[in-house]
User: Fold this.
Amino acid sequence: MLDAGFLESLLARSLSRGGDYADVFIENSDDSVLVLDDGKVKSISTGRVAGAGLRVLSGRNFVYLYASDPTEERLRELAESMAQAVAEGLKGALGGLPASPSEGAFRPAKDPRGVPMGAKLERLRRADAAARAAGPAIAQVTATWWEKLQEVWIATSEGAFVHDRRDRLRLTATAVAARGETRETGQADAGKSLGLELFDRFSPESIGAEAARIALVALDADYAPTGKLPVVIDSGFGGVIFHEACGHALEASSVADDASVFCGKLGERIASEAVTAVDDGTIPGEWGSGAFDDEARPTRRNVLIEGGTLKSYLVDRLGESKMGIPANGTGRRESYRFAPTSRMSNTFIAPGPHRREDLIASVDRGIYCAKMGGGSVDPATTDFNFAVREAYLIEGGKLGAPVKGASLIGKGSEILMGIEAVADNLDLGAGMCGSSSGSIPANVGQPAILVRGLVVGGRA
Assistant:
């Protein structure tokens, strides 16, 4: 880690010919990916990333340069190139840096880096064995281990200097069930900002067995009915619809450039009164958490929607310059190769007063979506189409037979208004979110929700 005096000189040099604000981001990361396919080791990859990026903001614009060899000499060259690239506008004020950085508090209880590769593969084998034990119809199993330690040091011309350590671990199992020509896939995973203590909460066996269960349910399912129906979407990864169809439209990267349906709607009602939505990067041990964002601001709990009313956007430093709204700890990036922008962390619909069973009981004929899959969305319009991984008919207020092939089609801004009731069973699901600042770990979540009149697509 480079000392505060040197970092301060880089910031001063970057702003020497103009610009309002500057920051420097230094990263050291290690990651490992292990893949077990049908009981055999398919691949083992490890990597190390080291680099630094310098950024200068000038009004609504910015310049970003980075280097994969962050020596003092190379960083001085980068700062000089930055100054020449800006070379206009007023010179921003430079705040002095503290002698040592503010430290993020989190450290894993059981660091996976000290564990032999064989012990990690053994956990994958346990997930594989549990999936196969679900029955002879399980024809293929893939188990994947992903771990990453990212250490960052960030200094800004506003006088912030921080160090954060982000440890993340995830185990995923995918099972294929087959009968004749029919093949169905199930997937389950557990991912947190934890070390090996992750497996004190989620055993490899439970992950493998859940992937197999989902595949076997689909194998015996008929195709889902189509049309406009009441839909109950369960907790956890069901929150992917809010994340994709609504959350991105609340990021300053869209709002500041008038590319969001929610532009200029602060203080207005944009959802039903049953909806309160939160983005919270402070939750200990969660997949999208960190002590600081990638602009050296402490992460925060940001209430986006409260009782249906839009309360705030997700605002990074550039968004602050464009919108005149203070940044709120949501500037994130994949690595030093990307300039940060406003991004979600752990984003969820808050719990309501109902039980999931009450939501189901209120539906005469509809669909219960137990597990959601992937999909697509147009951030400008919030039009979405999401696959349902596990679903059941609701008939007479009771769960009926499993169905497959369902997709949910709609507009995010309309589904918010259509949420009639929210249950109390909040859960979160880990995912990777891609945007202009790269692919980052982000949690999605919600309790079960009831939406009246959602379009269910599927096989004609």
User: Anything to note?
Assistant: The chain has a mean pLDDT of 94. DSSP finds ten helices and 23 strands in the chain. The first strand starts at residue 21 and ends at 37. The radius of gyration is 24 Å.
